[in-house]
Design brief:
The complex is a heterodimer of chains A (165) and B (88). Chain A is built from six helices and no strands. Chain A has 165 residues and is mostly helical. In chain B, helix 1 runs antiparallel to helix 2 (30-55). The chains are: A mainly alpha (165), B mainly alpha (88). Chain B: The chain crosses the membrane at residues 34-54, 61-82. Chain B: This is Cation:proton antiporter.
């Protein structure tokens, strides 16, 4: 009985390992084949969350130890917390330095927000209360140039970027 | 059976790492490069997980937990200081 259970658990762990590695391969293929930064970001998140979860659960199943589960859960939760933040920073920098292909986009909601900020004028401060993702847009000089700036940090906590000096 | 799984995972991860390195070399901007290096770090973490599961040890568990934080700090730092150097 124990032997058959061992075999089943080992098979499950093996399948988890292979599928987790397939996620990494999918990310590699996507990095090479996708046309611009935003679609490559979509491919890069595959091994970060689901792939890591499958691999860590394979480790837990293969080692069969409950004491290991909190550590593995900590590793996965750290990844789960940090992946959206770093993806947001990369996407924000990519949008502001115009590293995207306009013809691949169906809708660009941030463009409308920037256009509204330009229309309202640079002196008004009303944009900061509208929600996240619009920080720093109302502070710059008027014009489309506002979206291209990398200075103007979120909520003014970090150091000013080199472009702001 | 675990030996076969280790070989399959090794081949898959090697192919993925090669593709990510090609993107690091060719990437038109530093943002693509930092994204591809993040993927490369996740491939290293995946290889360590496969090693731990196949050989049944927990030696590299600390690095697996630390790698997320390292990748996060690197990505955020680089993308915070990106400027547009093209003359457009």
């Amino acid at each position: 009985m124990t032997g058959s259970l061992d075999a089943v658990l080992q098979a499950v762990a093996g399948v988890c390992l292979v599928v987790g590695c397939l996620m990494s391969l999918a990310a590699g293929i996507g990095m090479l084949r996708f046309p611009d930064l935003l679609s490559r970001m979509h491919a890069a998140t595959k091994p970060q969350v689901l792939g890591l979860f499958l691999l860590l659960s394979a480790v837990a199943i293969e080692l069969r130890s409950w004491a290991l589960v909190p550590v593995l859960l900590l590793a996965w939760l750290l990844q789960l917390l940090t992946a959206p933040v770093s993806a947001h920073m990369v996407g924000r920098a990519g949008y502001r330095t115009k590293h995207l292909k306009r013809q691949t986009l169906l809708v660009d909601e941030l463009d409308q927000v920037v256009a509204r900020a330009v229309q309202d004028g640079p002196g008004r401060d009303g944009l900061a209360q509208e929600g996240p993702g619009q920080d720093g847009m109302g502070q710059g000089p008027a014009g489309q140039d506002v979206a291209g700036r990398t200075g103007g940090c979120s909520a003014g906590t970090g150091p000013a970027g080199p472009a702001a000096g | 059976m675990m030996t076969a799984v280790a070989w399959i995972c090794g081949v898959l991860l090697s192919a993925a790492a090669a593709l990510a390195i090609v993107r690091v070399a060719r990437g038109p901007s530093i943002l693509e490069r930092v994204l591809a290096l993040d993927v490369l770090l996740m491939i290293v973490v995946a290889a360590l997980c496969v090693d731990m599961a196949v050989n049944r040890h927990t030696d590299s568990l600390v690095f697996v937990a630390a790698a997320c934080v390292i990748g996060f700090i690197g990505t955020v730092t680089v993308s915070r200081y990106v400027t547009d150097r093209r003359n457009s």
